Each structure stands twice: as structure tokens, then as C-alpha cells.
Amino acid sequence: MDSIKAEIAAVAARAVVEEGLDFSPAKRRAAQQLGLSARQGLPDHETMEQAVRDYIAIFCPESQAQELAVLRGMALVWMERLARFQPLLGGAVWRGTATRHSDIYLQLFCEDAKIAEITLIDMGIRFAASQVTGLHGERVDALSVQIWCADFKSYVGLHLLVNDVDGIRGALHTDGQGRRWRADVKALRTLMDNGHHAST
Fold first, then answer.
1. Distance, CA of 71 to CA of 98 (rounded, Å)
2. Is the domain of 144 the same as that of 50?
3. Strands of 104-110's sheet, edge to edge?
4. Do 73 and 156 share a structural domain?
5. Residue-range definition of the domain harbouring residue 162
6. Do 38 and 53 sit in the same domain of this protein?
7. Which of 11, 30, 59 is the last residue of a domain?
């Protein structure tokens, strides 16, 4: 691998773990901190994830494992509360690289995004609505909630991405290396029951 990209990934990984930055802004900031040109190629997603795993293994393996368990527990509670929308967990909480600074991302599936909004309103949950890129590159509604975490004594961001009901097709497929990038309730519960730290 390009040594410059590896250096960018290593610097960016610290921002991801210690500040909760997403990969893209962390990579851009790392390149800027290293005095590199804006045209410099940046490390890909897989390189970044490995750099984050390496950083965690060196600097915070025990605390990160505890924080990840808390976040997965929170995700499971919300997946069960929103079971009617066939929720799938993705991102760092599923992949095993989340820390107390990470947000929880759930993909929801329904005929109309308004149904998900009404459900939250009926539950007395305040949320902020926006639009983001969905599973298949289309724009989808995102409902963002701040939930209190007693373990962290702070709020954790929960983002509900509302996809069309047909969008669930292929959402649980594995990639060419057999890795699964999202999980349903059953898969998450199995991972937690088995005490596994990272997903596969």
C-alpha cells in the first residue's frame, strides 16, 4: 500500500477513535495536517477501518470493548422498539470499531417515511429530519435522535435512515471476502451472546 496513504490513515484513525469523526472528514483533515496536496489520493474505506482497528488495539482495547458493548446494547433496544421496520444495524457499532464518540446507524424499511416519523412522535421521541444517501445511492430521509446513555453520562446520536421497503433486498449480502456490513436483530443478538468483539 502507498506509504503516504498509510500515514494519512494512521493520523485519521486517531480522530475517528478519539473524536468520533466519520472516515471522510477524518481523512481530509489528516491530509491537511500532514501538509499534503488536496489532489493527494486518500486511503479507501478498508484501509481506514484497519487503521482504526490498529489504533484501538494499541491505545484503548479494554475501554473500547466496554464502550462497544454499551452501544450494541443500545442499538439492540432500539431495533426491538422499531421491529416493524425490519431494522438493520450498520457502521462502526456493527463492525466493532465504535467508541463512546460513535453514533448508531439503523436502516429502516417502510412504504412511506412519514410512517416512521409518526411512530417516533407517538413514542414521544424528538428528532431532526434530513436527507442522506441511502443503501443504493438514492436520497432517503434520516431521522436523528439524541438518546441519553447513563454509562457514558452523555448523549449518543441515533440515526434512522428510512429506505423504501424494497430496499431491503440484498442489504444483508456479504461482500467478496465474506464480510457482512449490516446485521438484523438476530445477528446482533448472536454476536453479543457469543461475546464477539468484531463482526465478520
1. 8
2. no
3. 88-90, 104-110, 154-164, 139-149, 128-133
4. yes
5. 62-193
6. yes
7. 59
Is residue 178 included in any domain, yes or no?
yes
- Same domain? For 52 and 67 the reply is no
Tally the domains of the chain: 2
- 110 neighbors 85 (Cβ within 8 angstroms): yes
Answer yes or no: do 47 and 83 share one domain: no
Question: Cα–Cα distance between 151 and 135 in angstroms, integer?
Answer: 31
Q: Which amino acid is at 54?
A: D
Asked whether residue 199 is domain-assigned, the answer is no
* Nearest of 167, 184, 108, 91 to residue 143 by alpha carbon: 108
Parallel, antiparallel, or unpaired: how do β-strands 154-164 and 104-110 relate?
parallel
- The whole-model pTM stands at 0.91
CA–CA gap between residue 107 and residue 82 (Å, rounded): 11
* CATH code: domain of residue 83: 3.30.460.10
Give how far Cα 17 sits from Cα of 63, 68, 124, 147, 198, Å: 11, 12, 32, 20, 15
Residues 19 and 90 in one domain: no
Q: Where are the alpha helices (DSSP H) in 102-182?
A: 113-122
Please report, in tens digits, the pLDDT of each residue of the chain (200 residues total). 588 999 999 999 999 999 999 999 999 999 999 998 767 889 999 999 999 999 999 999 999 999 999 999 999 999 999 999 999 999 999 999 999 999 999 999 999 999 999 999 999 999 999 999 888 888 999 999 999 999 999 999 999 999 999 888 878 777 767 778 899 999 999 999 987 666 65
